[in-house]
């Protein structure tokens, strides 16, 4: 099956000329924004009286004056920017969630959308995944996020935002800290973008969930984000999977985890932590008494790294879920991890995921012994297609037949 690949965002002379040609019309459309605000306020002031009239006459107030003005404003911007209006937006503008995934909005479409989002008090969740917004589109949405007081959940994944887009978004979120959940997966974010993200983590205490998966955050990014994670006082869930954290960057990131006192869920799977990174995470687990879920699958961790992780588990009582699947730790590493759990009767571990790692009879015997001490512990060993059950809320489903 052919997969369409979107071209990278480029700032060409032709694009600049087109933007200049639409500036005058765009400004005219913006001039109506104040009229909308006044109309919306007038509508609120008369809502009590109008409700009784509408009930009497059997007329629904689902598309009042404010909505008409908003639609007119949006359509005016679409015309000025020469973009096709998104009819689904007109249908969802009063819903708590606006979902416009895969619509090909582009930067101009984002500008048109932003014209009314600033004043929208209905939408709580904004999903614009995969729309080729680029830096220019991010700039338009940043203006919205710096002013809107209701949007708290934003998904801008797969939009080729790059460092310039993240820069303006982080600046906006620092000014208006209403957003609690931000998804930025697949945006080509690198070490430069990490600097803006680190600054945001230092000032935005209201941000609870951040998804930075499928980016290009490397060892330099890890050295930047680690200290910021150490100082952050709000984030409870962080997804850093499918990046390039390794070497000194992985160690610096783990040191940030060591002193963080808010993060509960961390996904660093599909990076390159290796044994040195695993050892740094082990030190973090000894001191951290908050983290509950840790995913380190596919991180080049050998048996030696697994034994280090085991030492970290011995002094930890809060970690409930540990995922180390698809690591070359072999049965020896899995045995070392489980032995550490056995030697820690106060362990709070509920799930140990060692999927796709072959284990021997010695491990099986140990698993049986641990089951007596910790009957609630589930050990996920394989990836069989069997009936599933949910172990913990917000956690991956686990095959019920392989929990031992």
UniProtKB/TrEMBL annotation:
<protein>
    <submittedName>
        <fullName>Leucine-rich repeat-containing protein 74B isoform X1</fullName>
    </submittedName>
</protein>
<feature type="region of interest" description="Disordered">
    <location>
        <begin position="1"/>
        <end position="59"/>
    </location>
</feature>
<dbReference type="InterPro" id="IPR052394">
    <property type="entry name" value="LRR-containing"/>
</dbReference>
<feature type="compositionally biased region" description="Acidic residues">
    <location>
        <begin position="10"/>
        <end position="26"/>
    </location>
</feature>
<dbReference type="Pfam" id="PF13516">
    <property type="entry name" value="LRR_6"/>
</dbReference>
<dbReference type="InterPro" id="IPR032675">
    <property type="entry name" value="LRR_dom_sf"/>
</dbReference>
<dbReference type="InterPro" id="IPR001611">
    <property type="entry name" value="Leu-rich_rpt"/>
</dbReference>
